[in-house]
Amino acid sequence: MLKIRLARGGAKKRPYYSIVVADSHSPRDGRFIEKVGAYNPLLKKDDAQRLVLKSERISEWLAKGAQPTERVSRFLSTQGLAKWEHGQNPKKGEPHAKAKERVAERAEREAAQAAAAAEAAAAPAVEEDVVEEAAPEQTVAEEAATEEAAPEETVAEMAAAEEPVAEVAQADDAPADEAAPTEA
């Protein structure tokens, strides 16, 4: 089967394409039958040298049964040599099964979080009313207890902190011979 297709040329990152008629089984840049045009994507879109076609030769090859590729048929439609229509593939942008599963799981998690947030919002509102009513009485009692207990706790903490220091001082004064048997 004959194809009218692009054959890439040019340097790395500087593409230049030849429009060729070739057997569909030959390599992309390999053997071809005839060169019927050129395409330089680096030129501006309004430049005349961006797309050069030999219209008579292309018409002859199309009459002989050569099939243009998708890209070449777009080029030929601008010259009126072939008809090109945008492809109709409704499933092209549709996500696959795994992505659909992930979306469903995410929706379930969000629904569960929203339900939990709604429950949490409803529950504290009831408790806050009860706490607000009892708060003035409790606050006065708690402040009084805290003021009375604070000096006692401070004295107890200071006494507990001093005891280990005294023990360490006694252990340092003891001779090394006496410390060894007690450790063993």
Summarize the helices and strands and which ones pair or pack.
Blueprint lengths: L1 E10 L2 E10 L10 E6 L11 E3 L1 H9 L3 E2 L1 H10 L17 H77 L2 H8 L1
Parallel strand pairs: 1-5
Antiparallel strand pairs: 1-2, 2-3, 3-4
Q: Decide which structural class fits the backbone.
A: alpha+beta
Beta content: 15-25%
Oligomer: single chain
SS element count, helices: 4
Low-confidence stretches: none
Average per-residue pLDDT, rounded, comes to 77
CA radius of gyration is 44 Å
- Report the strand count: 5
CATH class designation of the domain at 2-79: Alpha Beta
The CATH topology of the domain at 2-79 is S16 Ribosomal Protein, Chain: A
H/E element order: EEEEHEHHH
Which word captures the global form?
elongated
Largest sheet: 5 strands, mixed
Please tell me the CATH architecture of the domain at 2-79 by its name. 2-Layer Sandwich
State the separation between the terminal residues, measured CA to CA.
97 Å
Annotated CATH homologous superfamily of the domain at 2-79: Ribosomal protein S16
Brief summary of the model shown:
This protein has 184 residues and is an alpha+beta fold. It has helices at 55-63, 70-79, 97-173, 176-183; strands spanning 2-11, 14-23, 34-39, 51-53, 67-68.
What would you note in describing this structure?
The protein has a domain at 2-79: 2-Layer Sandwich (S16 Ribosomal Protein, Chain: A). A five-stranded mixed sheet has the order 4-3-2-1-5. The longest helix has 77 residues, at 97-173. It has 184 residues and is α+β, with helices and mostly antiparallel strands. The model has no long low-confidence stretch (mean pLDDT 77). The chain has helices at 55-63, 70-79, 97-173, 176-183; strands spanning 2-11, 14-23, 34-39, 51-53, 67-68.
